[in-house]
């Protein structure tokens, strides 16, 4: 087993402090010292039953060996209690409950909470205390066993059985599983409890805060106060920093921590980003929207796997779920079952936040109390009370299903051609068919008319969702006709763009923005991109400078070989080469290389620009640098796009530099490398298309959404793919020029990148979510490929070993010329078609379907435009196929019934 010190050394975040020992007490986030657990203050005013004073720490009191053992075996590197210094160990003595300070303290606090809540209901408190002590005894039993048993492994969870748990993963797991009893207790308590939660909730106007649209949230729970509060805007733990320091926020108490404190303060985060003392507490509802959305800081501090684990826990753990009674429907708070019904129905209200809602069970209309409808959800759900006449606070004297409607709705009805004279009472069904109250016959369909949806969009009124009537479910209403799905789908067509790393998905994504958006990149987006590009350029310069050093050394070696040693001694200046630079530039070069190695390149912005811009100019013009730049093809680390930027380095590194669209297109790292990006657009219609396709006039109104995600972002086994179940099609991007490239495959060996791409392709097309999906294969980087395939045989990739182009003999006399005399296809074309055929065969052997394919040059706008328009055609064909099975006569009758 590694020693504690070694343990720490493996993690960058565990060795954050390297300075001399401090002579003051470090502020600690985990009040592991029993006396310091800030319980008393909170409990003080409430008279508690004696049971409640159960000291949490007691059962885990253990000899020192225990704590040492513990550190070695199960302590998560991310957790707060991995302290290696002797002083700390001392401090911990008598409070070895730190095994899982998270859970222990969580317990303590929870008792306090229920205690406070139970000032109102005595039973609850005792039950809480009881469960608490049970949990503790159970655990203490385990611990004492361990202690009595002596040297045996500390087997408080099965994972630690492994002789050497993978430190990254197993240990996190172990801490999580350790915490399990606590969260179970808390959740079961919450569920079993038939007493409604005491009014933790107060109804008032929300202080409009980050990301909370005032329309949604009006219920705010009493907020938990942070344990310590530094001076305003500083880190709550070390009290350093300003409001500009990047900080992570506790989703319960809003405490903010800087990057050096966050892991100490939040431990292994079994419920996401909460101070260890906030674990088990309900989250601050205003932060619900950001659950599971990782910050850049965490991404830096934790590895991918840990980030995913933490975010998953944050989103799905019991304690963070929306409490049912925070939702009131038609004046009645929901119970747990009702909330489940609401959230699991075919068409649930998305992103449900606490608040008062009204719900028209007949039509499925849904809105905030006192407001116009915002959504149409599944009808006939038994949740909440009966709808009130004044639910939406309308004053039109027109009624729908017993609710007086609002002005905008009335306007919509009028535009839809519904006769509204004489204060009618309408009965509107889920499909939009309507009758006047007391009459039998349907008067028409509100959603049927072509323009209605547009009207609704303009008036911000909801329209039925396509899934509101899942096929197969029989309709109860005789004579009712369903609005066909494809009409609905026309509103927003989603296209998923995926590819193996480096295949060019972000380039295509950026092209789409540039092609179809009036403002491809917003102002602040550009600002960020600017810094990205500038730091890229510093990076390229660094690579160049490193190359220069290498070249200089090589030259010196060469010179030493040629000259005799006596000559060298005689003339000290003999060590100057073509690649030598003066001391000033040398100092800058050393600084830059050092900064790069430390990985802090991005942190120096924007200060660096001001400071170093003049030096960069001097550097770039220096003959040594230019000499090194001439040999750039020997610098493997320098990407091919680098020269595009380096040649303009002086301009780019100026303060007033503004990246052009082309700069952005070429820039690396603009779209987040594993995050999601998406863009909404519609295809602008060209004159030529208009004349051919007059029937599709409204095509330009159709909206598309391109969603880009790459292999890394999908997690192992593509487990995040399910999120994309509502996309209309998938574009899979492959880099043609990968066929002779190799990449580490994770098992330490190198695999051909084309084969890695193929494996990824297979896992995507076989994913259950995409069973019925159309796929378009984009074979990208044709420009590189065309040139490369003339030099490097295609069979460098095993998969392509049966490529025997017929043209070879024919071309032999004009082998090097790319334009063929007899206009037969180039080798590049043949080879790319061959590769397309390979993929198509593979695809149809797996799915039995046809794969669409397109050869693309990602850096050329026209080429990407063509490919994306091709995807639009595929979506249309798909739609038409659906139409064929649809009874047109039904549709036309329906259509006529819309006209008034
Ligand atoms: N020559 C050439 N280069 C391309 C083409 N498409 C993309 N590239 C370059 O290939 C590199 C990788 O492309 P990206 O668009 O970043 O690829 P990605 O799929 O986002 O890959 P990750 O960033 O690894 O996720 C970039 O330097 C692009 O400029 C192309 O058609 N031709
Ligand atoms: Ca990229």
UniProtKB/TrEMBL annotation:
Residues the record lists as binding GTP: 780-783
Residue numbers binding Mg(2+): 506, 673
Cellular component, GO annotation: nucleus
Locations listed in the record: Nucleus
GO BP term, example: G protein-coupled receptor signaling pathway
InterPro entries in the record: Gprotein_alpha_su (IPR001019), GproteinA_insert (IPR011025), P-loop_NTPase (IPR027417), XLG_GTP-binding (IPR053057)
Region span, Disordered: 76-101, 149-172
Coiled coil: none
Pfam families reported in the protein's UniProt record: G-alpha
Amino acid composition bias (Basic and acidic residues), ranges on this chain: 83-93
PROSITE patterns: G_ALPHA
Domain of life: Eukaryota
Transmembrane segments: none
Entry's family note: Belongs to the G-alpha family. XLG subfamily.
PANTHER family: OS01G0977800 PROTEIN, PH DOMAIN-CONTAINING PROTEIN
Protein known as: Extra-large guanine nucleotide-binding protein 1
Organism: Prunus yedoensis var. nudiflora
Lineage: Eukaryota, Viridiplantae, Streptophyta, Embryophyta, Tracheophyta
């Amino acid at each position: 087993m590694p020693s504690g010190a070694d343990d720490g050394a493996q993690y960058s975040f565990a060795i954050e402090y390297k300075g001399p020992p401090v002579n003051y007490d470090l502020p600690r986030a985990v009040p592991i010292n029993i006396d310091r657990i800030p319980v008393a203050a909170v409990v003080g005013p409430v008279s508690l039953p004696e049971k409640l004073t159960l000291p949490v720490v007691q059962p885990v009191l253990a000899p020192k060996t225990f704590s040492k053992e513990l550190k070695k075996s199960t302590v998560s590197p991310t957790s707060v209690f991995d302290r290696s210094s002797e002083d700390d160990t001392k401090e911990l003595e008598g409070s070895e409950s730190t095994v899982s300070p998270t859970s222990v303290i969580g317990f303590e606090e929870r008792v306090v909470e229920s205690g406070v809540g139970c000032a109102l209901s005595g039973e609850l408190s005792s039950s809480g205390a009881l469960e608490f002590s049970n949990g503790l005894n159970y655990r203490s039993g385990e611990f004492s066993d361990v202690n009595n048993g002596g040297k045996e492994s500390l087997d408080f969870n099965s994972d630690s059985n492994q002789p050497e748990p993978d430190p990254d993963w197993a240990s996190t797991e172990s801490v999580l599983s350790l915490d399990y009893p606590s969260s179970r207790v808390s959740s079961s308590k919450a569920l079993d409890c038939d007493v409604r939660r005491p009014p933790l909730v107060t109804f008032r106007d929300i202080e409009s805060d980050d990301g909370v649209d005032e329309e949604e949230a009006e219920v705010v729970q009493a907020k938990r106060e942070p344990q310590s509060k530094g001076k305003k805007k500083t880190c709550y733990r070390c009290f350093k920093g300003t409001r500009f320091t990047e900080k992570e926020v506790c989703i319960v108490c809003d405490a903010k921590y800087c990057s050096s404190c966050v892991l100490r303060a939040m431990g292994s985060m079994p419920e996401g980003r909460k101070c260890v003392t906030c674990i088990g507490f309900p989250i601050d509802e205003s932060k619900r929207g950001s659950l599971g959305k990782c910050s850049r800081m965490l991404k830096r501090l934790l590895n991918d796997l840990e980030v995913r684990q933490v975010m998953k826990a944050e989103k799905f753990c019991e304690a963070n779920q929306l409490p049912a009674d925070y939702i009131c429907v038609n004046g009645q708070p929901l119970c747990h079952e009702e909330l489940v019904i609401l959230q699991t129905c075919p068409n649930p209200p998305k992103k449900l936040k606490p608040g008062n809602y009204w719900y028209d069970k007949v039509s499925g209309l849904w809105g905030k109390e006192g407001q116009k409808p915002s959504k149409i959800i599944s009808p006939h759900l038994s949740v909440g009370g009966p709808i009130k006449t004044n639910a939406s606070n309308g004053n039109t004297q027109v009624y729908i299903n017993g609710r007086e409607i609002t002005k905008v709705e009335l306007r919509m009805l009028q535009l839809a051609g519904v006769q509204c004279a004489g204060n009618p009472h309408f009965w509107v069904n889920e499909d939009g068919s309507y009758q006047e109250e007391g009459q039998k016959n349907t008067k028409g369909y509100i959603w049927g008319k072509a323009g209605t949806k547009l009207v609704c969009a303009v008036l911000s009124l909801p329209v039925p969702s396509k899934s509101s009537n899942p096929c197969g479910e029989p309709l109860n209403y005789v004579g009712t006709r369903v609005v066909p799905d494809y009409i609905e789908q026309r509103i927003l067509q989603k296209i998923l763009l995926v590819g193996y790393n480096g295949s060019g998905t972000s380039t295509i994504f950026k092209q789409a923005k540039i092609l179809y958006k009036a403002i491809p990149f917003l102002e602040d987006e550009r600002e960020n991109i600017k810094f990205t590009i500038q730091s890229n350029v510093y990076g390229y310069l660094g690579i160049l400078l490193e190359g220069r050093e290498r070249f200089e050394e090589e030259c010196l070696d060469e010179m030493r070989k040629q000259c005799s040693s006596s000559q060298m001694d005689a003339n000290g200046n003999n060590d100057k080469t073509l690649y030598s630079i003066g001391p000033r530039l040398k100092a800058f070069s050393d600084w830059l290389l050092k900064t790069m190695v430390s990985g802090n390149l991005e942190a120096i912005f924007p200060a660096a620009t001001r400071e170093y811009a003049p030096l960069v100019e001097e550097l770039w013009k220096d003959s040594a640098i230019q000499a090194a730049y001439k040999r750039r093809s020997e610098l493997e680390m320098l990407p091919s796009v680098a020269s595009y930027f380096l040649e303009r380095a002086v301009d780019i590194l100026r303060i007033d530099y503004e990246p052009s669209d082309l700069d952005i297109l070429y820039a690396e790292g603009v779209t987040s490398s594993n995050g999601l990006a998406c863009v909404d657009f519609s295809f602008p219609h060209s004159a030529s298309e208009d004349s051919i396709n007059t029937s599709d006039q409204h095509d330009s109104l159709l909206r598309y959404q391109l969603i880009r995600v790459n292999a890394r972002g999908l997690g192992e086994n593509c487990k995040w793919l399910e999120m994309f179940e509502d996309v209309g099609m998938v574009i899979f991007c492959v880099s043609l020029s990968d066929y002779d490239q190799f990449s580490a495959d994770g098992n330490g060996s190198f695999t051909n990148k084309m084969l890695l791409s193929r494996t990824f392709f297979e896992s995507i097309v076989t994913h259950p979510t995409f069973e019925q999906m159309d796929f378009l294969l984009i074979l990208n980087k044709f420009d590189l490929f065309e040139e490369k395939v003339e030099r490097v045989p295609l069979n460098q990739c095993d998969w392509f070993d049966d490529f025997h182009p017929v043209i070879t003999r024919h071309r032999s006399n004009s082998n090097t010329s790319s334009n063929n005399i007899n206009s037969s296809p180039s080798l590049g074309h043949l080879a790319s078609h061959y590769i397309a055929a390979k993929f198509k065969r593979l695809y149809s052997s797996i799915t039995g379907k046809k794969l669409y394919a397109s050869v693309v040059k990602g850096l050329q706008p026209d080429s990407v435009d063509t490919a994306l328009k091709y995807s639009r055609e595929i979506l249309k064909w798909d739609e038409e196929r659906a139409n064929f099975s649809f009874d047109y006569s039904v549709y036309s009758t329906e259509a006529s019934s819309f006209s008034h």
